[in-house]
Amino acid sequence: MNEVLETMLRKYQATNAEERENAIKEILQEVALAGLSRAGFFHVAAFYGGTCLRLFHGLNRFSEDLDFALLAKDPSFRLEDYFSAMQKEFRSLGIEVEMSLKSKGEQSDVQSAFIKGNTLTLLLHFFPTKSSENSAPSNQKIKVKFRVDLDNPSGGSTEVRYRLLPSPYEVLVFDEATLFAGKIHAILCREYKGRVKGRDYYDYLFYTAKGTPINLIYLENKLRNAGVFLQEAPLTLETVKQMLAERFASVDYESAKEDVQRFIHDKQSLELWKKELFLSTLDELKKQ
């Protein structure tokens, strides 16, 4: 196996097929980021979301997707323009994947694509010594989805961060206060096919425990874009607390726990998830 991949795999203690597949997905994410960086993608877009939080802020849960937002509206932006740079990065490590743009049924402010690879082929490439334990249907695919928000509002702050593997590269990311604002927006606005996206609530507790402040200007702009906040006066921290209190009082926490448990190792941490726990965090919130 490629020496770089061996180095990247050392941090994983993958003891079963699911954990090995998750390790592969996380490495695919990092290789894709390196390819995007070398293609100049981060001159026009910034990284956010759960994977950003895991890589740059220590979030201890698995995240499936890569999420980005354009720094300014650009009608000519095409996500597929960056496919060749990512493919070059994958091929340099002997990784066989394909990329495809997700077709849009209607006008959308998001461009999405998938990185896909045959599950069995990737397992054998990354874990050749586990060949007797690697099993998957011949047509099964490992997928990593990545999305670009084309209509990101103003008010977000960014910073440059670095990764050393597969080789040194830089990524433009939203800072932690902006990421927290985006997460609160998701809690207040996201509809997830009739289920609660427990990952949002897990990340919310992560930010709160760290004492991360909220970029209130960015949150206000996102809520106005979503039609959730329409008052003429600026958004205040007290209004945010009231909106969250209403949401926390109505959440189906069993559904939230069911959603997030496959992304974390410490499932015991979910036992206290209930309205009272989340309401108790509101006094800890602070603005930037």
Provide a descriptive summary of the structure in words:
There is one protein chain. The strands form two sheets. The chain has a five-stranded mixed β-sheet with strand order 1-2-5-4-3. 32% of the residues are buried. Helices cover 42% and strands 15% of the residues. The mean pLDDT is 93. The protein has two domains: 172 residues, Nuclear Transport Factor 2, Chain: A (Roll); 108 residues, no CATH class. The protein is an alpha+beta fold and 288 residues long.
Provide a brief overview of the structure:
This protein is α+β, with helices and mostly antiparallel strands.
Record the SSE blueprint.
Elements: H1 3-9, H2 17-38, E1 45-48, H3 50-57, E2 66-70, H4 83-92, E3 98-101, E4 110-118, H5 119-126, E5 141-149, E6 158-163, E7 169-174, H6 176-189, H7 198-210, H8 216-225, H9 237-250, H10 253-260, H11 275-280
Parallel strand pairs: 2-5
Antiparallel strand pairs: 1-2, 3-4, 4-5, 6-7
Helix pairs in contact: 2-4, 2-5, 6-7, 6-8, 7-10
State the helical fraction. 40-55%
Q: What is the CATH topology of the largest domain?
A: Nuclear Transport Factor 2, Chain: A
> What is the terminal-to-terminal distance?
46 Å
Overall, the morphology is globular
CATH superfamily of the largest domain: JHP933, nucleotidyltransferase-like core domain
CATH class of the largest domain: Alpha Beta
Q: Please indicate the percent range of residues in DSSP E strands (runs of 2 or more).
A: 5-15%
In total, the number of domains comes to 2
Total strand count, please? Answer: 7
Strand order in the largest sheet? 1-2-5-4-3
* Main sheet attributes: strand count, strand direction, barrel closure: 5 strands, mixed
Could you spell the SSE succession in H and E letters?
A: HHEHEHEEHEEEHHHHHH
CATH architecture call of the largest domain = Roll
User: What are the segments in which pLDDT stays under 50 over at least 5 consecutive residues?
Assistant: none
